Amino acid sequence: MSFLQVQDVTHTYFSLKEKTAALENISFEAEKGEFVSFLGPSGCGKTTLLSIIAGIVSPTAGRVLIENRKPGEKDLQIGYMLQQDYLFPWKTIEENVLIGLHISNNLTPETEKTALELLEKLGLYHVEKKYPKELSGGMRQRAALARTLAVDPDILLLDEPFSALDYQTKLNLEDLVFDTLKTYQKTAVLVTHDIGEAIAMSDRILLFSKQPGTIHKTFAVPDSLKGMTPFEARQEPDFQSLFQNIWKELNHLEQYRAES
Predict the structure, then answer these.
(1) Percent of the chain with pLDDT over 70
(2) Residue 146, domain member (yes or no)
(3) Parent domain of 144
C-alpha cells in the first residue's frame, strides 16, 4: 500500500452568492521517500490540495490517507513549510525550533538535543540565542526547516518555501532541503510555479489544469537526474528537455485559460 493516497478528492468553496469548484476528482499515490511536485496555472487548486493533505481543509468529496491514517489523527505528524518562515519574533531561534515538541508534549532532553543538532546540520551555528530579526532570510528559512523537522514529521508539505528568497539563496536552499529529505527518507509534496525547481527537486511532477483543478498530465523525472543535487541537475541535457516539454504543456494550459 502506498505511503500517501489521494482518492477522488473534489473540493468546492461556498459563499452566500455562489459556489466555486477548486478541485475535481484528484487521485494519485506517492511512495515513502518520494518527492512529488504540483505545478500548474495560478488558481488551479494546488495549495488547496496541499491544505487538504495537511488536514487543514476537509474535502467536499474523496479522502486522503497517509500510511493508512487520515490527516489530523493524533499520532500522525505533518510538517508544513510556507513562503514565509513564520518564526515568532519574540522567541529565540532555540525556542522557535522546540515549539512543536512543546505543543505535542514530546519535549525531552533527547528530543531537544536532536532538534538543536538540526541547526548545525543545516549550517546554522551558534544561533540558538539569537532572535529571528538577527538572521538573514535564508537563515530564517533554514531555522523554519529545523523547526519542521524537529517533530520528525511523517510527511513534509512545502508551499513555495523559496519563492521570497534571492536566486542564489534559493538554489542553495534547494540543495540543502533535497539532501536533508533524502538523508531522513522523508516523503515530500511541493507546490511551486517554478518549472526548474519542480524538475530539480522531484521524482514526479503533477501538472494541474485550470480551475477546477484536475491532473492534466504526470511527468516522471528521468533517473539520470534523481541522484543529483538540484544545482547539478539543472546543468544536464535531460533537465532541459523535460523543462521544454513541461513549459509547452503549461503554456498551452495558460493560453486555453485566457481564451475560455
Answers:
(1) 98
(2) yes
(3) 87-153
